[in-house]
Amino acid sequence: MASSTKKPLPVQPVRMRAVCPICKTPSYSAGGTHPQCMLRHNDQLAKQQAAAAAALVDRAESPVHHP
Ligand SMILES: [Zn+2]
């Protein structure tokens, strides 16, 4: 029995799947981010920015402590 012949390893197609940075799941979108995740992310960013802006305004408009 000749065992010199090696079977070629089955080549599995390794496709680089972009992982959505928002939900950490493979995405087939061009940018790698699901459109709905992008919307959600943008919404969160907008809320964070709005909260930060509100905090700044609140801090700026807060009355000075009277002695
Ligand atoms: Zn996603």
Structural class: mainly alpha
Globular, elongated, flat, extended or rod-shaped: what is the shape? rod-shaped
Portion of residues in beta strands equals 5-15%
- State the total count of DSSP E strands: 2
Per-chain topology:
Layout (H helix, E strand, L loop, with lengths): L17 E2 L6 E2 L7 H27 L6
Antiparallel strand pairs: 1-2
The chain binds zinc ion (ZN).
The site of zinc ion has 7 residues, from loops.
Which descriptors apply to this entry?
67 residues; binds zinc ion
Kindly describe this structure.
- 40% of the residues lie in helices and 6% in strands.
- The protein is mainly alpha-helical and 67 residues long.
- It has a domain at 35-61.
- It has a two-stranded antiparallel sheet.
- The protein is rod-shaped and about 95 Å long.
- The mean pLDDT is 83.
- The protein binds zinc ion.
- The site of zinc ion has 7 residues, from loops.
In short:
This protein has 67 residues and is mainly alpha-helical. The chain has one helix at 35-61; strands at residues 18-19, 26-27.
